[in-house]
Amino acid sequence: MTTITTFHDLCIDVIIEILSYFNVHEIFYSFCLLIPCLPALLANGHVRLHVRLNNSYFIRWILPHINLTQVVSLNVPTRPYNPSIFQFTALRSLVLRDVDNPLLLFESSHNWPPCYLEHLSLHIRNQDIPNISSNIGVRVLECAFQLQRLKHFELHESKSSLKMVELYDQLNFPLKFQSTNIKCLILTVYCNWKTLQSILYYSPYLHYFQFRSSFSSLETHSSQLYFTSIRKLNCRLDGLKTDLFLNIFRNAPFLHQCKLQCSFSSSKQYHIDLLKSDIWIQLFDTHTSQLKTLNIDITFPLDSIDEETIKTINEDFKILNFKLYFYSDNVKPCWKMTGIFNRI
User: Fold this and answer.
1) Of 79, 103, 149, 190, which has the highest C-beta tally within 10 A?
2) What is the pLDDT of residues 78-111, one digit of tens each?
3) Total structural domains in the chain?
4) How deeply is 120 buried, as exposed, middle or buried, from its count of CB atoms within 10 A (0-12, 13-18, 19+)?
């Protein structure tokens, strides 16, 4: 004989397990009428809560019925931050947008920053007067690096920033500081050469790195980038010379996946070093033997290359799945090399 069961026939442990797959808004939207004792169940079952919005519904109907010490992830898309984020002392993940004074987040007081914080993403504003230098981005990065349990950090610029946020100086730490434990670092703000070198020096466990930078003639005396521990690299680099580009691969022995968007300075050397497939293959085999995927978007200064030469180059590039072609965006005509190389 078949027995028909309902949601209420489930044991408490199963219900708690089900609730753990939803964020707090979804829990109250979906289960507040189905489970009359929902707030007590959440508290007694020690359900880890995930907050994705701080809208009026959350403040009025959810906030009074939850324990903030059970909130382990907080994603706040808008200001003002109500309630204050400093009340969430058990966070493991925090995403904040439109942050106007990010350094306040790192002042050690009232159990803040949360000692178990592993994921931090900040969209910061720079409200400084235009044309006056500010290193707010570097100071934030220094603070984040000193959070002992932090594994994932992202730094973005808020859409409401009054002045571009950028990283343009070396990182400075107390003498006792040795390195960060961060494994994933995403920087969508501009990163100066000095800052970039400093980041790599203090990040021995970094596996994924995303950044953008450019190089000037003043920086050619120290053109090495050491991606010692990097497994996955995603970067945009402007003003490159061929030797610096090749050193990316020479100094990344554990690289698995790589996405490069690059532009080269005026030099004909790339004709020799980058427009032959055997140069690339030798580079992969010698220095990045673990490389599985390479996605490139490379821009060269416009130079006179006849159609027959282009045809020969592209025929040779088929083994890499690369292609060289003329490109014009109505601003600066150039040569582009694009493609995705996959090693089987």
Assistant:
1) 190
2) 877 778 889 999 999 999 998 988 998 998 776 7
3) 2
4) buried
Residue 94 and residue 121 in contact, taking contact as beta carbons nearer than 8 Å: yes
> Do the beta carbons of residue 114 and residue 89 sit within 8 Å?
yes
Contact between 266 and 290 (Cβ < 8 Å): no
What pLDDT does 267 receive? 64
pTM over 0.70: yes
Give the torsion sign (CA, 207, 213, 215, 221).
negative
Distance of CA 192 to the CA centre of its chain: 16
Instruction: Give a yes or no: residue 327 inside a domain.
Output: yes
Residue range 257-304, pLDDT digits in tens: 999 999 887 766 666 678 899 999 999 999 999 999 999 999 888 777
pLDDT in tens, 291-338: 999 999 998 887 777 888 899 999 999 999 999 998 887 677 888 999
Distance (Å, rounded) from C-alpha 274 to C-alpha 283? 11
State which amino acid sits at residue 66.
I
- The residue range of the domain holding 26 is 1-78
